[in-house]
Amino acid sequence: MAIVDANLVMDMPKSLCAFGGLDAVTHALEAYVSVLASEFSDGQALQALKLLKENLPTSYHEGSRNPVARERVHSAATIAGIAFANAFLGVCHSMAHKLGSQFHIPH
């Protein structure tokens, strides 16, 4: 179960928006290129990438002054998560956990 409520991310700092947004991009890309990708996961991954391309820069720069962009980035991250749950992730994601822990980089 997940609570997907964009109100929870309206006031997050720019740095968290950037880290979370780029993490969502990698989730979508990894799902799309996964050897276990399917027509279903590909559609979700591509939609997530489209939403992120269109809304992540605005969400970063305008923050809570543009709640629509914030909500769309939040939705895109969720869609990317659904895509990788169906296609699984690769070594990039595994390395991100280890490197993030070692160098204190948010993931």
TrEMBL record:
Signal peptide: none
Record-annotated Fe-containing alcohol dehydrogenase-like C-terminal domain positions: 18-107
One Gene Ontology MF term: metal ion binding
Stretches of the chain forming a coiled coil according to its record: none
InterPro entries given in the database record: ADH_Fe_C (IPR056798), ADH_Fe_CS (IPR018211), Alcohol_dehydrogenase_Fe (IPR039697)
Record-given protein name: Iron-containing alcohol dehydrogenase
Lineage, top ranks: Bacteria, Pseudomonadati, Pseudomonadota, Gammaproteobacteria, Enterobacterales
